[in-house]
Specification:
The structure is a single chain. By secondary structure, the chain is mainly alpha-helical. The chain is built from 12 helices and no strands. The protein has helices spanning about 1-15, 25-40, 50-70, 90-100, 105-120, 120-135, 140-170, 175-195, 205-235, 235-245, 255-270, 280-315. Helix 11 crosses helix 12 (about 280-315).
Amino acid sequence: MNLIALLVGLLIERLATKLFHLRQLRWLDRLIDAGFRQMERLGSWPALIPVIFLAVLLVLPVFLVIFSLGDNLYDFGAGVTFYGFPYPYMALAIIVLFFSLGPKDIGEEVREYCSAIEGEDEVEIQRTAKALLEKDVPADATERTRQVEAAVCVQANNRLFAVIFWFVLLGQYGPLGAWAYRVTDLIRRRAVFNSTREEIAGESMQNIAEAVGRLHGWLAFIPARLTAIGYALAGNFDGAIAAWRGRNESKAESLSEQNEDLLARVGIAALALTSRDDESVQERGVRGALAASGLVLRLLGIWAVVIAVMTLYGSSL
């Protein structure tokens, strides 16, 4: 059942681009900001405790839906419907997956970025690149190209593969796992945004951002390494493995930064892009972004096959 729900969810992810605005969940920003304000009042507490409490509160609605449906959630008998759908669990899984993936499709954002480069629209280039980087865009076009390629490899784990991992790992509680990961990523993104705003940035906000990054890093640790292995399989294997071994993860870095660094290094090495003498900086930027998006798409196909084989093998035992 999880396999079917996952395939339907991924199909919607690829086709229903006009519905992506529903996944922005801007209204949750107010709740997260309110949680941050309460955390600042608990200055004597370790920041990680209220961060976990906030995440639990945001995950609670999905848990309550699962709990309230009880046995009916997995009852596939006649007459059991969920808004006209015969399988309550599958309906819930597809809905939760839709809101857990993203918020935007990486391929769609890459296409917007490439269109902006081709149209020489500097404002749009800055906007689309910043959406991928989650930080200020470098002024140098060559450095921007490198960072965007790395960001696509990192964001693929945050928006797609880690969600799938937790959805599959938790079995019948997959929707709860997928939404829990998305919640931590939403809190992380908001904390990063708030820590850069002068009017609210401060030591307390920095501590909160570090705690959120720690929680997100824990949940992303295994998916990040599985994704890195996948990049090696979907791209230049030797180069990717060499990049993985080429740098020891520093203890000075946070776990979240280690995850992102690993994904960026291995992803770029797996692309194995070389410079072309007849290629402009703009053309290189488009080629690199599209190559990174293609690597993610190939890996998604590998994951789909592996999950399908695991599901079919498990059901045959």
